[in-house]
Known about the structure:
The chain is of the alpha/beta class. It is about 50% helix and about 10% strand. The protein has a single domain (about 10-230), classed as NAD(P)-binding Rossmann-like Domain (Rossmann fold, 3-Layer(aba) Sandwich), CATH 3.40.50. It is globular, with a radius of gyration of 18 Å. It comes from Pseudonocardia kunmingensis.
Amino acid sequence: MTGVDLSGKGVVVTGAGRGIGRAIADLFATRGARVVVNDLDAEAAGSVAREVGGHAVPGDAASEAGVEALIAAARDAVGEVDVFCANAGIAGAGDVTTGEDRWAEMLDVNVMAHVRAARLLVPGWVERGDGRFVVTASAAGLLTSLGSVQYAVTKHAAVAFAEWLAATYGDRGLAVHCICPQGVNTRMLANAGSRRGILTRDTALEPEQVAGALWDAMTAGEFLVLPHPQVRDYTVRRAAEHERWLAGMRKLQRRLDHPDPEEQ
């Protein structure tokens, strides 16, 4: 796909009932796209679809059957799917003692949902030489996520999958973008508990700012979308001085384990 002319393009945004997904759906609709709004919350999906003049397709966007149904319904609503925004994700605290069911759930939503959508869409895009896949990952996928090993691991996997798509199909018509913000004023951040202070140390952004950063990256033809620009510096430091970076993470972990009452 050359440029970022979305006029008449079919766009699917998962997890679009609120937060970042909602902001992306709204922005793309203003750019002339025919937007399919997906969310598990049918009421929220319908509300956003009405606001943006799009089509609500509520339901599961993670399971194999759910992804197949979503893409089929999207094609019925807008014709060909030109852009797929794999935005739906889940978070939550967890450590090495967390059970298999939670691991499976987070892998399903945060990683396999992307894989399943790409499996259905990428071959056709490559054949016609035109398509765009957007992954909403996290700065946790470039760094880590203290307090949630499942989130850290699955977001790293989401980044890795997006990178692989870009490396493999980037010269065959597929544009790939990977969004890696820190704290964003969404329900997920509100439920972050003691980790909220770490996530917002560089200021929490509004979802619309994240959507704007995505648009800027699309315009520039850039893979990595960093709404918090300082994440680039953190990532460079992590690669260049890994031991020092890990020492800093341990220091932050100690703050989580023994919080200062004055910071509460």
